[in-house]
Amino acid sequence: MDSSYNSSTTKPIYRGTQIIWYLLYFMEAILALRFVLKLLGANPESGFASFVYSMTTFLVSPFLSVFGITEVLGSAFEWTTLLAMLVYWFIAFAIIKLLLIGKTVSTPEAADKLNKEDK
What are phi and psi of 72, to 5 degrees? Predict the structure, then answer.
């Protein structure tokens, strides 16, 4: 068995990546729900829609001025929500890649990966 599996850093890195993926999935789910509610023209004064909008406002607010909102017959195609989802996915992916840098690797494993990168 590879010694990198028994490293003291393996379990914390694994837990960290699990937490980041969970947070990302949660954010993506509520942002997707916001997108669908806006697209279907949900009543913003209804309790559920109001709750979803208030929960996601801080997530989309940095992107509100990037694109306009396309509205047709009471439905809104919110480009900013899609952009927010994409940006948060890239951020989570980058954080996970940074965490994985701390993973212990054996010398043969490191040499093999470097050889693959040279090609």
Answer: -140, 115
Quick: pLDDT tens for 65-105: 898 778 888 788 899 999 999 999 999 999 999 988 877 77
Q: Which of 76, 19, 22 lies closest to 30, judged by CA?
A: 22
CA–CA separation, 42 and 34 (whole Å): 10
Sign of CA dihedral 27, 30, 32, 35: negative
* 51-61: pLDDT as tens digits: 999 999 999 99
Give the position of tokens 């509205």: 71
d(CA 93, CA 52): 25
Residue 49 corresponds to which tokens in the numbers above? 């829609």
Q: Which residues pair with 62 in a beta bridge?
A: none
- Residue pair 57/4 in contact (Cβ under 8 Å)? The answer is no
30 to 46, 53, 64, 106: CA distances (angstroms): 17, 9, 17, 40
